[in-house]
Design brief:
16% strand, globular, Rossmann fold, PGM_Phosphatase, six-stranded mixed beta sheet, phosphatase activity, 225 residues, 27% helix, single chain, alpha/beta
Length: 225
Amino acid sequence: MGVQTTVHLLRHGEVHNPEGVLYGRRDGFHLSDLGNQMAQRIAESVGDRDIVHMRTSPLERAQETGAPLAAVRGLTPVIDPRVIESTNDFEGLSFADGAMTIVKRPHLWRHLYNPFKPSWGEPYDEIAGRMVAAIHDARDAAAGHEAVIVSHQLPIWTTRLFLEKRSYIHHPKNRQCTLCSLTSVVFDDDRMVQVRYSEPAGDLIPAGDRSAPFSAGGAPQEDRP
């Protein structure tokens, strides 16, 4: 075996979002009280691991999720725009009414013509490309140790599908990427050998929030909550 390095993809914790907005890349969406508990749980659960490098999405919810772990490990996270949330043409809409949000707005239907791309936002290949590039940089920075990248549900799940050579086409409710979950990519030198998944804060997630919320046509959603 060569040098083994693990890069953990950490999804952020619960966000304060009482209006049910698809917030995407918008500023001003912070962790809820429960989200902060989840972030603290991550620090308690993996703070004793050999984590020597951290990078986060520029968005507040990601930086807030990584802060407790960074403090425990004595790290200064690198802000990496490559691991930001994906773009989405439905950003800013409230999905409190579920599917009716789009059904009632015919002018939005044109964004749903190609679920294989997807036509409502950033192409899956582009998401995977930028995420994988960041993973390799984190692997190099933490060679022989462990690194953490704090990102968002769709980028993390898309990356896992890419790494496991699976189809991008999926229903959001089937994403194995709960709040504050870890998708861990294991390398032997520069060769990926394994993808693992764990939920250190799984017991804190309300039962009704474990599945992903509404997605018209199978996916124009990002992180909610």
